[in-house]
Design goal:
Cobalt-precorrin-4 Transmethylase, domain 1; Rossmann fold; 7 helices; four-stranded parallel β-sheet; 8 strands
Length: 220
Amino acid sequence: MKVVVAESAGFCWGVKRAVEKARALAAKSGMPVYTDGPLIHNKQMLARLAEEGIKAADNPETLSNCVLLIRAHGIPPSRTAALEKLPVRLEDATCPDVARIHRIIRERVAAGETVLVFGDAGHPEVIGLVGCAGVEALVIRRPEEVSELPPPRRRYCLVSQSTQFPRSFDRIAASVLARFPDSAIIDTICRSTRRRQEELFEMAPEVDAFVIVGDPHSAN
């Protein structure tokens, strides 16, 4: 049997960055290292990090004299503000691609636009994105939901959870523009996600089956 490994297989750069940052802090900070919830969505790696002393904190509010690391998915600004009040050294492992979406949302809300987030409402990344917009954000998952949207205060700005399907985003965008032609469409799907999905389509004619290695909770 021939096994072909995709060139894009493995952790994306944002996850690698978060893991490396956690390990560097554990090695150099001289303090215990905790993460605000799971650092990433991969149980095997989280177990390995726990063996190295890097653990997810169930109740960060009880911590002191330690390093507390913000997860790769990012968190709402209100959560950051609360953590900054704790007697801990707060560090940030938010993926830069996600941090970029945070900045876009803040800018668009400041301009008076209502943000539409294409993504899974319960996913930590989406919770953080919505938190950046406050009341000026709606989460949408399917093109059919566009018909149920209320008129925006000024206009809509559509962004995406960084790990969504590009083709699905394009369908959502087309539906939004059909109903609200002046909407701003900003494709914020990350390069790693886009490349992996492109590679799947490229490999499909050459293989009999795909084996996806990863955590079921991971949007990647």
